[in-house]
Write a structure and sequence with these properties.
The structure holds 2 protein chains of 2 kinds. Chain A is globular and about 35 Å long. Chain A is mainly β. Chain A is built from no helices and 11 strands. Chain B is built from no helices and 11 strands. Chain B is globular and about 40 Å long. Classes of the chains: A mainly beta, B mainly beta. At the A-B interface, β5, β9 and β10 of A face β4, β5, β9 and β10 of B.
């Protein structure tokens, strides 16, 4: 079944800890994206990757890091430097930058 | 910098009504515009994609139009149903998607 899989669905983090959110796609897409969604706000771009071993900062990259070692995987690490990490995180992919995007089901991160 | 605005922010209608959701964007240099649906606590489902060279796209009861010169897109939902209740998001696409804040739609029986 083709699609984008995000895991886990829910994640709890203690203050000061780093956590990594997983995003895997089997659509053979080159481009992948991470967005953050807060209540009452639109989606904001954290990082995006055009191709393997390449990624670019989005509008709110501070406190986050990514890697793109494999075409199908684009994990996001939320570091302790991110001051307000509690949010809903969405991963997306597309054939190339600027083409139709498809989203995963999201990971809800809560800092406890 | 691209900015996307959606009006109205919320809409509540009885079943059977025809609806128009509005989306405006500031940068007309988009490759395409995409409409999504989001159910509470879920990811985004792609509804329609309109290429910059197109004027409209249709899928079932949904019709989306695009006017690049005026920076506007509309999503038309015909004969609304309670199952259409969700948040609808539009996004202008250059190298990445820039989203509006959405229209929360409730269709009651």
């Amino acid at each position: 079944d083709g699609g984008i899989t995000q895991s886990p669905k829910y994640l709890f983090r203690k203050e000061g800890q780093n956590v990594t959110l997983s995003c895997e796609q089997n659509l053979n897409h080159d481009a992948m994206y991470w967005y953050r969604q807060d209540p009452g706000q639109g989606l904001r771009l954290i990082y995006y990757s055009q191709i393997v071993n390449d990624f670019q900062k989005g509008d709110i990259a501070e406190g986050y890091s990514v890697s793109r070692e494999k075409k199908e995987s684009f994990p996001l690490t939320v570091t302790s430097a991110q001051k307000n990490p509690t949010a809903f995180y969405l991963c997306a992919s597309s054939m190339a930058l600027g083409t139709e995007a498809f989203f995963g089901q999201g990971t809800r991160l809560t800092v406890v | 910098k691209q900015e996307v605005t959606q009006i109205p922010a919320a809409l509540s209608v009885p079943e059977g009504e025809n609806l128009v959701l509005n989306c405006s964007f500031t940068d007309s240099a988009i490759y395409n515009l995409q409409w999504f649906r989001q159910d509470p606590g879920k990811g985004l489902t792609s509804l329609l994609l309109i290429q910059s060279s197109q004027r409209e796209q249709t899928s079932g009861r949904l019709n989306a139009s695009l006017d690049k010169s005026s920076g506007r897109s509309t999503l038309y939902i015909a004969a609304s149903q309670p199952g259409d209740s969700a948040t609808y998001l539009c996004a202008g696409n250059t190298d990445k998607l820039i989203f509006g804040t959405g229209t929360r739609l409730q269709v009651f029986p």
